[in-house]
Predict the 3D structure of the following.
Amino acid sequence: MFFKSKELPKPGMIMYEVSEHGRINEWLVSDIIVNGRDKSIKLTSMDKTSFLVIEACMLGKTFFKEYQEALERLYA
């Protein structure tokens, strides 16, 4: 799946992760990494103690830009 720059979250936005334990976790977008056609998103925990880098293809599957989308996925 290919994302255009305007579809990617912007640094400073909050992203929502639906965990396999049935919780919604909040992450802060700290950076967008573009390497050729590959796009990744660096996320930092809200308490700034950990970070992770996800591929842009995870948007809409496990990670969401809107809380409502995460809720719908959680209860689907």
User: Anything to note?
Assistant: The first strand starts at residue 14 and ends at 18. Residues 67-74 form the longest helix (8 residues). The two ends are 22 Å apart (CA to CA). Residues 25 and 52 are 13 Å apart (CA to CA).
